[in-house]
Amino acid sequence: MAVTIDPRPTVFGDRMIITGTYAAGDNSIDLSSFLSEIDFAGANSSGAIAARAITDTGGAGNLQSVIIGVDVRIDGTTVRLAAGLQDPGNIANTAPGQAGTFIAIGRRS
Asked: What CATH number should be reported for the domain holding residue 65?
C-alpha cells in the first residue's frame, strides 16, 4: 500500500480535514491515528478513467461503454475504496486500478 497523508491537516474546532494520495490497488486508508470518526470521505482518480463494457439489461444484450469513478465507503475510521460498479459484498477484492487523491473530514481523536 502506498497511501500518503499530507503533512499539514486543517483543523477547525473539533473537526479535521485530512487529504492525501493512494496508489493503484489500495483499497483502504486507515485514519484512526487522526480521527475518532469520519463524517465525509471522497476520492478522485489521477487522470482519465478507462471506460468499462457493461451489458445492457434491457434484453437486447448490447454492450455499453460506461465510465465509473471510485466507490468510497466509510468503515469506522477507515476509508474503503473500490472500483465502481462492483459487488458491495466483495469490496476487499475490487481495489481501484488507478491511483488518485482523497479527502476525509471527521472528529479529531
From this structure: 2.60.40
